[in-house]
Amino acid sequence: MSAIVLSSCGSRHRLATWARSPRPFALALCDYAGESFVSAYEPDFFLSRRGDKFPNYLALLERYPAILNHEYFAFIDDDVEIDAATIDATFRRMRAEGIDMAQPTLRPESEIHWEHLRSCDGLRTEQVNFVEIQCFFLSRRLLRRTLPFFYLIETGFGMDLVLKKIADEENVTGAVFHDLTYRHPAACDSVQQREGFAESRARVLRRLELCWGETIDIHRVAAGIRGKLKSAYPGWGVLYRAYRVWGTIRYAARLLRKAGRTATRARKNNPSE
Fold it and tell me: Residues 6 or more apart from 221 whose CB is under 8 A from it?
């Protein structure tokens, strides 16, 4: 089996957790910060280019077409904390189980946006139609199918929508592995960065809507996420569904508390209102 990991990296990278040589997969790095750190990881393919994540991935593929000769591909953000054994195990499980789209699950201390990506002890594989873009794995067949959409994506937002649409319409086999995990720390973006991300997301959403000829409703997308459990132990399926519901309730409560704190601060700053 031939597999490769692609990553667009800056100075705050966490490559040391998974990229050191020797490793059981090839490595393609794009340095977007103009640093010299990459020499320590001996990448098989390297490019220095300032830019967003997906334009950097495209630059790597255009510069080194041989990358596409591999059978399996992982796209991993530079702030992800994972180990080489987990990456290798994900590739091997994909091949063994005939999976085109996959992701390890997130450890509880991670920043988690989608509850089905939270690791749950006792579970092994959950078949899904949605993965997140911070750490996703594709077969060569699915990468070639999605590659034209790379030209529409900037920071990563939108590729999850593309993969879900293809998974729904073309019967793609996707999975998350609950027994393989990684950590994704909470983002520490500045106000300027968050505003830039918001503008980028709006641009990408308009491009996808133009491409597909339909309005994209993110809430409807979220409601359409499907999962089918393959439990490691009998009876865990029902418990996990309850766990997912509880996680959704906790997330909603957290949003309400945050809104309450924001309203309280606003009243303190404007006591006359």
Answer: 161, 164
